[in-house]
Amino acid sequence: MPVVKAAAVQISPVLYSREGTVGKVVKKIIELGRQGVQFATFPETVIPYYPYFSFVEAPYLMGAEHYKLLDQAVTVPSDATRAIGEAAKQAGMVVSVGVNERDGGTIYNAQLLFDADGTLIQHRRKISPTYHERMVWGQGDGSGLRCVDSAVGRIGQLACWEHYNPLARYALMADGEQIHSAMYPGSFAGDGFSEQISVNIRQHALEAGCFVVCATAWLNAEQQAQIMKGTGCSIEPISSGCFTAIVSPEGALMGAPLRSGEGEVIADLDFWVIDKRKRLMDSRGHYSRPELLSLMIDRTPKSHVHERNAHPALKSLDPADRLEEVDSRRVTAATS
Which residue numbers are catalytic? Predict the structure, then answer.
């Protein structure tokens, strides 16, 4: 059975700077690669930063902050994603990272998964932005509710309160998830949020019989002051709420979780433990009852345009030829 060295990364963004945060993530990937890490998870929308402003400002007041995020959000593909892919390739590491993705005039909460050769092997969007996030992000579709084979195993990804959706989690369980990448904002909503993350990820590890690598972000005192100055909020909504950790398929924490500061939790994921857990309880196998309980998933990528041509397009690209063909059709219709 393989053993994979994994890291859950707690890192601060460079507020209001896509380029700065990408540079920081790239540097951390290279650093972890030198330590022999084979898989790493970074926090939810850490590039360029989580939209804390949307939690503390009324909708009609958040325009200035929203424009900043729109300007610094990531296009996929772009120089930003290529830089992360190159770093993953250089480190020989599989990397899961959260970004604010800009598509036209809309921002999405996206999770990007890069294989050890730098290839982007999954690009998914959070299916339901939570509460205040609905003012900032569009909705994703079901195409990303699946696991992907990588150099280190079969990986699934979910963001934050998607872990409160048991059907979304079961979609990954039933797809043979071995490593689950969990992302949360961090420095958010106080100690109670940290406890909720702990419950979320330990329960998923137990039910899925997989390893969970969970990352949250960290705001230092200077960054908290920046957000407070920009939004007029108090410090409580943008403090604590961190829980960066790795969980075994038996629901046990593998090392002490990070509750503050920058750093990483590193652990060896021995895939034999997956077999050990699933021998007792396999939610996609002997402990399931598909004739009684099953899940229907629409994984079709959603498009804004579905084109049906009632009439074939004119073949000629020459405007004069088009007019001649139209006139010919009119004459034929008049004499028939």
Answer: 44, 126, 160
Q: Where are the alpha helices (DSSP H) in the chain?
A: 18-34, 53-56, 63-72, 79-91, 166-173, 191-208, 221-231, 272-280, 319-335
State the maximum Cα–Cα separation within the chain, in Å, rounded to a whole number. 87
DSSP per residue, 32-97: HHHTT--EEE--TT-BS---THHHHS-GGG-HHHHHHHHHHPBPSSSHHHHHHHHHHHHHT-EEEE
Asked if the model's pLDDT at residue 96 lies above 80, the reply is yes
What pLDDT, in 10s, does the model give residues 212-224? 999 999 999 999 9
Q: Is 137 exposed, middle or buried (0-12, 13-18, 19+ CB in 10 A)?
A: buried
Query: What pLDDT score does 191 carry?
Result: 96
The edge-to-edge listing of strands for the beta sheet with 153-159 is 148-150, 153-159, 179-183, 211-215, 245-247
Answer yes or no: are the C-beta atoms of 66 and 100 closer than 8 Å. no
Cα 222 from Cα 208, distance rounded (Å): 39
